[in-house]
Input
Amino acid sequence: MSTPLLEVRDLAKHFPSRGGQADVQAVDGVSFDLRAGESLGLVGESGCGKSTLARTILGLEAPSRGTVHFDGQSLGELSRKSWKAIRRRMQVVFQDPFASLDPRQSVLSILTEPLVIHGLFKPRERRLRALALLDAVGLGAQHLHRFPHEFSGGQRQRIGIARALALEPELLVCDEPLSALDVSIQAQIVNLFVELRQRFGLAYLFIAHDLAVVRKLCDRVAVMYLGRIVEIAESEDLYAEPGHPYTRALFSAIPVPDPRAPRPRAAGLRGEVADPRERPTGCAFHPRCPRAEEVPEARCRREGPALLPRRMNANGPARTMACHLAPAGQAER
Amino acid sequence: MTAVLEVEDLAVSFPSRGKPVRAVDELSLSLEAGETLGLVGESGSGKTVTALAALGLLPRSSRVRGRILFDGRDLLTLPEREWRRVRGNRISMVFQDPMTSLNPLLTIGRQLEEVFECHRSLPRRQARTASIAALGEVGLPRPEARMDAYPHELSGGMRQRVLIAMALACRPSVLFADEPTTALDVTIQAQILDLLGRMQRESAMAVVLITHDLGVVASSCDRVHVLYAGRSMETARTDPLFAAPMHPYTSGLLRSVPRLDDPRDQPLPTIAGHPAVADGRREGCPFEPRCPHAALPCRTDPIPLVALPGGRASACSRPDALRELEARGTR
Output
């Protein structure tokens, strides 16, 4: 097999707390691979560490532990100069299109700045490149000399995407790029992400909390809870039948836009998401898990389950998940 | 059924450098005891302004016309002193952001006791007992211990429970819930919507649920009012609205929401363009620039809500558009 584009191994990011409290373990031992051209969704509730994971992969935070390899190169050992070369290949789209564009820069300047920094194209060709980028995201030449405040939220997000595409990256890390947009605009941007991926062969690490959007955009999905991946599966399998009790709870809590559908349920889920400073012992999900009591000898409380291929029941789906309910090693793949 | 709250021809505008901005225009709605009415629309559609008008919380600079009838009185004519007896007592509101709508310097117990002291004239000790009971009702674990907690010591879901406890403390007849779960995670959202539904059934309170989430509307509302750029586009009971929207905007909105069961490899249907700004333009339909059915008269003709069979109403008067929508259903 060829080297994955992105190889994340046991990655952790802990933030120190003040006043002698325990560290915040925002990300705590995450491993996954992302192949070139593949789209991986990262879902989970606020505070589960998905954004911190993205920032650590991008090198915006220094990892507390673990490694990230991009196309075989370990990012932890890179010099500044090599980082610059990697950044060309790995770009980011942020959540808030109102905060992630400089209000004093025109669209032309926003789109050509990455080209200037990386010394790409002759100065007179950069304008043409900017026009091509605008065209790729559904904007036009008439927008080139305008400023961010003249655009709606959806248009700004298009500009943010065009900027990320300027350097022809292989990987786009998208951190909740839809959640600040209105419903009617979200659909436009979802379609744009689908189209761009087909056109440029991009790989996505796509962070979102809307599971229906992730299904549209991603080949595989990783579900995070309190800093760890609890389940990772092909989209088709995950959406056909979620495996991990937390994934199941997440799915059943989503309100469906159809009054005939069953009402969203808290699905026996107790209490609130735990504070990452007070990570529960064993499986972090056990205090809320509706099935923790089925596992004998309070194992869920004592021992953290490893993320392994498992089968939930005899006929159930084979999944890579972290749960004591399912014995390890019974899955075919 | 009699309406507990009636809004008639409400218009709210704000002064701006150019023409005044009309945030809400010609909005009429009525609310019956015990029902949940969804106010649906995108940012800038006038949902929150409508709620603020019904609570007398609009800034002084705003200009308000129309009537809001409650208990045989027009709320828009109430002096501020009278307002204080109604607001938080007979009509309450739960705000979107549980992080910023509590006072960070006071314990949640103190903030809750104030409600009972102001509206029920309870002495401090009784107010404390009533507050502990109110916290217990909204499912806050260990309510007595939580009384002395400050807002920052609680999670978002717990803060929203506290706000709901405050809003419901006096058993209001009408509750405006403005995106009460938007800042919360889905598993917590389900718990909070359950809680609101339970509290409502116990007291026959009417709820106006303001949201942009059509999933929340489908699962929680009896009737829906769809707003666009401050105007009513369509109103109907929830089931028929989702089964066959009778306005091109509602139809476009419903079709553009990704679902867990739609074909993965097809692009999502979209609404072209971007949301209208309430810019003071008065003529014609505000949705006209984005509407696939738009024709010349849509730019100039007035768009009153016209009654349709089945107790619903639509502001779209293009007969061909309505026929097509009726034939198509949602998808």
The mean pLDDT of chain A is 90. Chain A has two domains: 6-225, 246-321. Residues 246-321 of chain A form one domain.
